[in-house]
Amino acid sequence: MNVIKKDGTKEKFNKQKIIVAVGKSAERAMVRLSTEDDEQICENVLSIITHLGIEDVPISTMHYAVETALEKVNPSVATSYRNYRNYKQDFVKMLDEVYKKAQSIMYIGDKDNANSDSALVPTQRSLIYNELNKELYKKFFLNTEELQACRDGYIYIHDMSARRDTVNCCLFRMDEVLAGGFEMGNVWYNEPKTLDVAFDVISDVAISAAACQYGGFTIPRVDSLLAPYAEKSYEKYKKEYLEITDGFTEGLSQNHFLDKADEYAAKKVKRDFEQGFQSWEMRFNTVGSSRGDYPFTSISFGIDTSRWGVMASEVVLKTRMNGQGKDGFRKVVLFPKLTFLYDENLHGKGKKLESLFETAIDCSSKAMYPDFLSLTGEGYIPSMYKKYGKVVSLMGCRASLSPWYERGGMYPADENDMPVFEGRFNLGAISLHLPMILAKAKQENKDFYEVLDFYLELIRKLHIKTYEYLGEKKASTNPLAYCMGGFYGGYLQPNDKIKPILKPMTMSFGITALNELQELYNGKSIVEDGGFAIEVMEYINQRVSEFKEEDGILYAIYGTPKHKWAA
């Protein structure tokens, strides 16, 4: 028996091709077919074709036979197969929608992302690609239930335009990339030998690496990152002073001469800091990345007590307060977002760095930033700092990573096991619309937690599918991160798959509208009665913990802002 393909050529009937095609349709319908099912389908197909009495079977007839055979075994898979077959018609409709959106972007603009200037040609190209990629994601990655849940609004899949391509927010290990030198764009960069060069190289790395992901790109603890390069510049400038003044030291004491050298070198280092942070502000807010936007860069600082660490923190705050632009028209910029790390033992009243904290307060009153992250208060982030001395910097805007331990993984192997935060990232977030889920349960007269479980499982399966899909990506897709050490374990070869380093990375269940959930439940706000909201959060946390154990994936809970949902 032969099958006549669309180009008129013939090929022998192949059961394995039918099994593969049917398997893809089953996966889209969230159905797992058994070996017996596969055999039954193939037998049904052969029976139908035999009944037709033809030796050379047109491809359209073969599709008809497969659909008919599937209807007898599993109607939902038959529907999935039929829908996939209709992809040509679907593509026409999909591309028409993309074309309309493209026209709107080109002639009207797009305000969905404040970091993207849709008046620019590269941004327009990126936005149009994103629209196409989003439609492809919905068509070929989501199954019917997942897509319907999105359309109905019960779940929200963040960043559908980028989820198939790459990873989400991160804490980038800039120090690991710089140490000893690195390769970028097929060119070898030596490790910077001075502070001014370090500033330039770091901004190059940040823009290049951030373009290979989506979401926030954080360079943690920049005061400690920059201090060693400031020391190198200090030694250079001190030597410079000694060479300039050689032969003009008669009558001066050695101590006086050294003090002058120190004053000269420190002044030059401070000037390098001022120019360096100014260059970051100018570049991160005016030079778009290759993905067509200004990446959400962020830095944390404030606890390095060394001479140059303190200077770095002071200068970054004063640079932000002063704004950028010509006199009389100065503007306070947005990027990099500033996060001040507050330690009561360093910044409290009468403590060593109290004046630095006062400068941060002054900056916040004038420039909105920095945000303040307490390391010695109460809660998860302070607990990690108090117990291990580890800083949990925020990934971009606000998200923080749950711990991953060097030897034990999700849980410490023993009391000496240390958590790792820097070099890790998120693999995507999917949010639950809790008030709508409660309303659905009431409307259908079902138990709320039964309906909630359905959507939790839906998100869980989608996360697993995403985890497996991204694991097949090659390290060459983001070489600074996966090959040059920017990510934890990121010393792979370009052709290696990235799956081996995904274990420490998180996948998020987003939570939104807890106050509205409580109000829908009993007409009271969280302030008046937060009992049900807390009960739901405890339930979700318990279920997510169970998923972590069963799947071996580091699931996390994420507080979704309302503006994200609206977008």
3D architecture notes:
Helix 9 (195-210) packs parallel to helix 11 (254-286), helix 12 (307-322) packs parallel to helix 14 (354-367) and helix 16 (434-443) runs parallel beside helix 19 (514-522). Helices cover 53% and strands 11% of the residues. By secondary structure, the chain is an alpha/beta fold. The strands form five sheets. A five-stranded parallel beta sheet has the order 5-8-9-10-11. A four-stranded mixed beta sheet has the order 4-14-15-16. A three-stranded mixed beta sheet has the order 2-1-3. It has four domains: 2-85, no CATH class; 95-140; 143-160 and 425-567, no CATH class; 169-226 and 276-421, no CATH class. The protein has helices at 15-28, 35-52, 59-73, 75-85, 87-107, 121-140, 144-152, 174-178, 195-210, 222-245, 254-286, 307-322, 344-347, 354-367, 380-388, 434-443, 448-471, 479-482, 514-522, 531-551, 562-566; strands at 2-4, 10-12, 56-58, 155-157, 170-171, 182-184, 187-189, 217-219, 297-301, 337-342, 371-374, 404-405, 419-420, 426-433, 506-512, 554-559.
